[in-house]
Amino acid sequence: LPPAHLHSGWVQGRLGQCHFEMVDYSRCVECFRRVRKLEPWCAHGLEYFSTSLWHLKKEVELSYLAQEVTEFDKLSASTWIVVGNCLSLQKEHDTALKFFRRASQVDPFSAWAYTLSAHEFVANEDFEKALCGYRQAIGVNPRHYNAWYGMGNIYFRQEKYDLAAYHFKRALAINPRNTVLYCFLGMVQHNNNQNREALQALTKAEKLEPNNSLAKYQKARVYFTLQRYHEALDVLEEVRDFAPKEASVHFLMGKVCKRLGKVNEAILHFTTTLDLNPKDKNVVKNAIDKLHVGDNESQSDDEL
Fold it and tell me: Who contacts 233 (Cβ-Cβ below 8 Å, separation ≥6)?
């Protein structure tokens, strides 16, 4: 695009939305910061901007944005979505719900207002009301993949794996470049003993985002289930480089090393797990106690 168009608020807003859909929240925020400088009166896209700030845990910037937009336009649904996201980040879920409801009252066709309300119900573990909110969002906009994801996540937590997979696939049909969706689909399929399909989904997530540590870790879990221990260890070593202080990674590495007969390395990883996450000391100590037990025991070892 010519520079005059590229640096316009409209184009930067659409770029920000694209980065959001690709789970690149940092770039999304950069684009919308430029929009705020170019067109501070523009409310379009604030739901993407504020939700990205929520994901990045930028509480101060989100609070400032909420104050700014409420002073400028109290009749926009986007304004109340920003305020709701701000309160949600502060763990004030009930108060956030009130503002998301206000957003839906201002604009009954705002799919975001219904979806974010549903997210708050999930945080409060009120799954029936959350499902109702997601269905309202889909009723307003059937292509609002965030609501399909939300429903899939609830069914996943309820261990209704077939229903969860169906909703994640519906979300992916709308947004096939979202790595989070592929990761969750892979996790569901793994839990549903569809290991080959799980590997395919997680591999797609890796191709879209090569540094995606969640996809790599879940892939290692699938390899462990398939008893492909050398491949699991190779992947886990990559994940450890990205997330050296993630206790679950070291714990799984310890289990893999145990299966490979590397007892000393297993002890090292279990000890590291204990240092990083003392709350799970009973699980870790149980794993250490089982180090010299034969590999003919059940594959379903304890997990963090």
Answer: 220, 253, 256, 257, 260
CB-count burial class (<10 Å; 0-12, 13-18, 19+) for 2: exposed
**Cα–Cα distances in angstroms (integers) from residue 261 to residues 87, 230, 292, 299, in the given order:** 50, 12, 9, 15
- 162 Cβ neighbours under 8 A, 6+ residues apart: 192
Average pLDDT by stretches of 10, the chain with 304 residues: 79 94 94 94 92 97 96 92 97 96 96 97 96 97 97 97 98 95 97 96 95 95 96 95 92 95 93 90 86 56 64
Give pTM, 2 decimals. Answer: 0.89
DSSP letter assigned to residue 221: H
Q: How far is CA 101 from CA 63, 83, 84, 156, 225, in A?
A: 19, 11, 9, 26, 44
Residue with tokens 């591999």: 203
Q: Are 171 and 185 in contact (CB under 8 A)?
A: no
